[in-house]
Amino acid sequence: MQTSNPIRATARLATRRKRVAESFSCASECIGQLEKGCSLFAITRGQFSMIDAALACLDQVGRSKISLWTWTVAEYEIECLERLRIDGRISHGTMIIDSSARIKNRSLIQQWQRTYGSESVRYVLNHAKVFTIESESGFKLLLRGSMNLNYNPRFEQFDVTEGGEDFNLVREIEESLPLLPDDCKGKEVYKASKVSAAFDPEQLELFSGVKTWAK
């Protein structure tokens, strides 16, 4: 794949970044009016979650296809995802979730598959917090940040952009992920995640076996 000129890309990003905010308000007030080509970088105190931000965007752009990248879902976050799952403005949803969630979040994953289809979940090695919204009205929103699915009263950072190569990159990666069965093996997940392309085999060996924090 051809890479873009880094100098030109930097110039485009400089003109694109239109708004920054230190937010103490709700998601809708922080995000403000969405426009084509808009960009927002915000620092919050954790008063809203990634789900809150996504719902605030859906309020403006209407019926959309969405994707959600998450590591896992704790018990207190299930209600947030349930709210998202039953939202009539979502025409299709894809969940990219860490394979470890297959056990502790099995029921939630099955509910998601019943709503959006058997091919709506991708198992990978994941710690990214990303949300995409592709609306029937023509918006392509990419949300990302340190926040999880729930609110968390501490410093968090949050970005939302419309259109651009960042959205295209996320969508390209999503479309390249293979559909793995619920009982897939760890080796299949590693292969799908392409972790070996970023590490030497010796480095990956450090992550095999029992994790140090689990001893």
Q: What is the fold's blueprint, element by element?
A:
Elements: H1 6-16, E1 19-22, H2 27-31, E2 39-44, H3 50-61, E3 64-70, H4 78-85, E4 90-98, H5 101-104, H6 106-116, E5 121-124, E6 130-135, E7 140-145, E8 156-162, H7 165-176, H8 186-193, H9 201-205
Parallel strand pairs: 1-2, 3-4, 4-5
Antiparallel strand pairs: 2-8, 3-6, 6-7, 7-8
In short:
The chain is an alpha/beta fold. Helix content is 35%, strand content 23%.
- Described by the principal axes of the CA atoms, the overall outline is globular
Major β-sheet strand ordering = 1-2-8-7-6-3-4-5
> Mind telling me the C-alpha Rg?
18 Å
Number of domains: 1
pLDDT averaged over residues:
85
Low-confidence stretches: 1-11
Name the helix and strand elements from N-terminus to C-terminus, one letter apiece. Answer: HEHEHEHEHHEEEEHHH
Largest sheet: 8 strands, mixed
Would you give an account of this structure?
The protein is of the alpha/beta class. The protein has one domain (14-207): 2-Layer Sandwich (Endonuclease, Chain A). The protein is 35% helix and 23% strand. It contains nine helices and eight strands. It has an eight-stranded mixed beta sheet with strand order 1-2-8-7-6-3-4-5, sandwiched between helices. Strand 1 (19-22), helix 2 and strand 2 form a beta-alpha-beta unit. The radius of gyration is 18 Å and the shape is globular. The N and C termini lie far apart (43 Å).
Can you tag this structure with a few keywords?
single chain, 215 residues, alpha/beta, Endonuclease, Chain A, eight-stranded mixed β-sheet, 8 strands, 35% helix, 23% strand, disordered N terminus
